[in-house]
Specification:
The structure is a single chain. This protein has a single domain, classed as 3-Layer(aba) Sandwich (UDP-N-acetylmuramoyl-L-alanine:D-glutamate ligase), CATH 3.40.1190.20. It contains eleven helices and 14 strands. It has helices at residues 25-31, 43-52, 64-74, 89-100, 165-178, 189-206, 214-221, 226-236, 274-288, 292-307, 316-334; strands spanning 8-12, 16-22, 38-40, 58-62, 78-86, 103-110, 115-121, 127-132, 154-158, 181-185, 209-213, 239-243, 249-253, 256-260. The protein has a nine-stranded mixed β-sheet, with helices on both faces.
């Protein structure tokens, strides 16, 4: 993959506010959640679950593509997020948070409430999610115009957009017509199980970079062996990426496989946002012209640092450590 002349990365997805709670496996069973998965629910369902929680939820801006764009902004990259939020306090909170993190917000608004995700974190650091899309589900294909994607390097799309196929297809066509690379993160094994045929169709026609974790890759490819799954990811897109948690990740491109070592394993408390922030590091590196090996290294560092805290926001000291790694990559590039 060659260096992208324009460095702007645009993320398109659901504008959501994350509600984070720590609970037991027994609590997960009471909710009926598929552990580690994502379930679409109504707003009141989330209120009911919160009423049973042992403590108040932490509130942070979220959504998969949003998390990735915030990471790129914190890395010093050029990032924009496109989505739809409510007109109330949570919508303003969401937009203000993007701007504070060096992300250009391009938000449509609705009279419906801003969407939210209840993320239940169990002692094994797994997170199980209940999602109320709210205003996020109301963005339409007519609102997405090709001009939004002019002079863009990479368009990053979260798999959750599969629930709005007209919108997703409009975005894919606009991205391709603009000459941007298209990155698709499969997002959740539950989505892949529900929409595998459609996902196969769009990856064949539109996708340049395909990202998945172990569960998503197994669901998408039908292969339990991760290297077999990786091979298929790399055949479906120019670059296939398989994230395997604390064991690191793999990148399949140009008929070769790159093993990316994990950046660390100590101090992991929550995997929320790990895949999203891995994508931040990888796409930032790609837009800056680093090698795939270096992109993976930056992605690994971002994914690790976010696992050291609750939620998808890396603290300043974590970003400082990541920036030191980027400086090392710069030296490698110069040499």
């Amino acid at each position: 993959m060659t260096e992208q002349k324009n460095k702007l990365v645009v993320g398109i997805g659901s504008a959501l506010v994350d509600l984070l709670v720590n609970e037991s496996d027994e609590f997960i069973k009471k909710t009926g959640a598929a552990k580690g998965g994502m379930t679409l629910v109504e707003n009141e369902f989330i209120n009911d679950i919160l009423s049973m929680a042992s403590d108040e939820a932490s509130i942070v801006p979220g959504g998969s593509a949003c998390n990735t764009m915030v990471g790129i902004g914190k890395l010093g990259g050029n990032a924009r997020f496109i989505g739809k939020s409510g007109k109330g306090k949570m919508g303003k909170f969401f937009a203000d948070s993007l701007e504070k993190n060096n992300v250009e917000p391009h938000l449509f608004t609705s009279s419906s409430p801003t969407g939210r995700v209840l993320s239940i974190i169990t002692p094994d650091t797994q997170r199980s999610m209940f999602t109320f899309l709210g205003a996020a589900s109301e963005i339409t294909s007519k609102e997405i115009m090709e001009g939004f994607l002019n002079n863009v390097s990479i368009v990053h799309i979260e798999g959750y957009l599969v629930y709005n196929k007209d919108l997703l297809l409009a975005v894919l066509n606009a991205a391709k017509n603009s000459g941007a690379l298209v990155c698709l993160d499969l997002a959740s094994f539950t989505i892949v199980n529900e929409e595998k045929k459609f996902l196969y169709q769009i990856t064949d026609e539109f996708v340049d970079i395909l990202m998945a974790n172990e569960d998503e890759a197994a669901a998408f490819t039908g292969c339990e062996n991760e290297l077999d799954a990786l091979k298929i990811l790399g055949e479906k897109a120019e670059t296939g990426i398989l994230k395997v948690g604390e064991r690191g990740s793999y990148i399949a491109a140009n008929d070769k496989i790159i093993k990316v070592m994990p950046h660390g394993s100590r101090g992991v408390v929550d995997t929320t946002g790990a895949g999203d922030l891995w994508a931040s590091g990888f796409l930032f590196g790609l837009s800056e012209g680093y090698s795939l090996e270096e992109c993976g290294k930056i992605g690994s560092a971002c994914g690790y640092e976010v696992c050291r805290v609750i939620g998808a926001s890396i603290p300043d000291e974590g970003w400082h450590r990541i920036h030191n790694i980027i400086k090392q990559c710069e030296k490698t590039t110069e040499n």
